């Protein structure tokens, strides 16, 4: 029994020494982190002050959110430092009890919670492991998950909150910065909301105008393109006509008129022949095979008659052309 008690006392004393060493190392690291965080806070605050001096109060109101985040991180580091210093003074209470004393529940629970939220703090993580092995996993889990009666300090929970600060808190923080630096701040709540609404309306109107202008430009481009195509087609027709006229170099007006009338006469004869052929092809296509011979003979007869008709009409056309030639010659002679 005595050996067991000595072993427990020796283990407790060893845990207390290790805890004391870790807390001192954590305080040393906190001093470095605190100085670094102070620099970040001052930089963010100087940016807000510069915006206020330039008159960009709305931008400063947006930028002040970063100042609040940096300040919350600094406050959390300061709270961790205070709890660590409190543990250094009460290490004996942790050494002599197997359960967490009521006087240290808030301190231990808050440090366990902070260790779960701080990424780059190895000493604080080791302190959390030591408390978990000393007071049990259920105690540590209650603090990390913020269960009922976890006794974590509420301000520490607020400092590690991931929610964005409200508009009212940002406005109050900005007023403090402006007052501390002697800057006149004219940031009315209603005026800010109205300016925000006007800005949204202006953006909406600008969007509609840009859409309409884009549509008008597209229609205008389409009309110009169609006009260009029609102009190009007309020019190509004019070029082809001029080339065809240039290809025929007539000696005089009589020759040109003669050529025109001959072309018209032959075109009329060809049109009549094509019309008669189309009529013959549409006749009696559904006759039986018994009358195929007679139908063939009849077709040959009709084709021969058509050829004769075409020949006769060709002669008539040539006569008409000759007649027109004589008329043109006589007219041309009289004009001379």
Automatic annotation (TrEMBL):
Which InterPro entries does the entry mention?
Ist1 (IPR005061), IST1-like (IPR042277)
Task: Give the GO terms filed under biological process for this record.
Answer: protein transport
Segments crossing the lipid bilayer: none
Region entry Disordered: which residue ranges?
Answer: 281-320
Q: Where is the composition biased (Polar residues)?
A: 300-310
Instruction: Classify the source by domain of life.
Output: Eukaryota
| Family listed | Belongs to the IST1 family.
Q: Which PANTHER family match?
A: IST1 FAMILY MEMBER, REGULATOR OF VPS4 ACTIVITY IN THE MVB PATHWAY PROTEIN
The molecule here is called Ist1-like protein
Q: From what organism does this protein derive?
A: Phtheirospermum japonicum
Lineage of producing organism: Eukaryota, Viridiplantae, Streptophyta, Embryophyta, Tracheophyta
